[in-house]
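ARCHIVE CARD
SHELF: 3
SLOT: left
DATA:
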Amino acid sequence: MKKLLCVLLALTMVLSLMAGCGSGGDEKKETSAPKQETEKDASGQESADKEGAETEAAGQEEGDQNYDKVKIASPIPLTGPNSQYGMAYKNALEMAVKQFNESGGLGGKEGGLEILDDQSDVTQATNLANQIIDDKDVFAVVGTFGSSVGMATAPIYQGGGMPLIAPNISHQDFPQTGDLLVPISPTATIEINGVADTLFACTGEGSKMAILYATTDLGVNVNSILTEKWPELGGEIVYSNSFVSGETKDFSALLTEVIALEPDIIYTSGEYYDVASVILQARQLGVSEDVIFSGPGQCFTQEFLDLCGEQAYNGIYCGTLPAYFEDVITKENYSDTMVNFMTDYNSTYSEACNGFAGNCYDGIMLTLLAARKVGTDDPKALVEAIVSYEGYKSVSTEHLFFSDYNYANKSLCAYTVKDGHFAKVEY
């Protein structure tokens, strides 16, 4: 097997790729929206204490902006199948608003937050969207979880003149649905193209990939992107089949077919428990120890490690959100801003910090900082201020910027598992 450290050569390519990609896999050039500075670039040195948005907010100048509207609405899944993600959102939202208000708020007024339960249900989310755009006190929406709900409600917010800042919508069509829509996550096209480059660098010309993907919008998109990108790089797709996430428990029939084809990589697009099930069952079926298992950032959880244990070895797990573990998010590996965010979050809430909380924190804090700068009465000006904001110190990545107006770009994170712990692949 080739060593996992071959990722070192790939990640530099990934950053270049992500900076130049947009929707549909076409190359995009960065527009006038300036690239966010990293922590060291912005200040010349690493800050020592609570960095990020709290100190950034305190340093913003205020002019004659209009702050008649002071409320942000946040429709998130507090109940239902995605409530664990909704709780991470809720915690991050409340933390950010508290810090922002402590630093001066909006012209001396406290920024307001209304959290609503959309249950990750399209009908409920649609009803809430219509309710929100009629609320005269709301100047922006930060929320919705997942592409299904996001794509259903995006036209409502766009049509109602309401900015929607979406922490975790990766559907490739979302950014171009309207000029008031701002994803904090890169599109699946940007992210998965970067993942493909990284994995290909580990296997090389002629390498064979098998894909198992969930029958969700994201899973279908990931399969489509990989099946096009992998052969372009010089590899071969030897297998592609779908499963129902959360319902498919027995992967043995699919894996028997996969193993017979002797792939170099088995990529599973689904939730962490889907990836874990594939790994464990493939080991039981006698898959070659040289096979590389791969999966998305949803795997960056303690639950994934608990399920897989030592069986997750020989894996390359990739995503644009980091693994928020104290032995991973250290000041040797990441910025003080990210370390302090994780520490503050974990000391405040019983749930461990994760990437969903980080994305949501960035989404609402960027919105509040932009509102402080341009006011809250002009939706287009607010969005332009968000995507062109300079010097913001992200808590969800070391490198966040927007290209082609509202396409989010982030550094790719790649981890393997050693001794039951995630280990960052350096470069």
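SLOT: right
DATA:
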Amino acid sequence: MKTTIDIPEDMLAEAMRFARAKTKREAIVAAVSDFNRRHRMAALTRHLGTCRNLMSVKDLDEMRKAN
């Protein structure tokens, strides 16, 4: 998708340096991808410890020994 946005040069230069991007587009794609990944992970952590059907380490060890 093509869009026109105004990004401060210093911020874009810093993003390019951190992402080791050769182009502005590459830096923006890396930044958006990282933003989305972080928010997906944050959404997953809200569910941490809510599943009661997972095996315990002890159960897993016993199952491995049985096979």
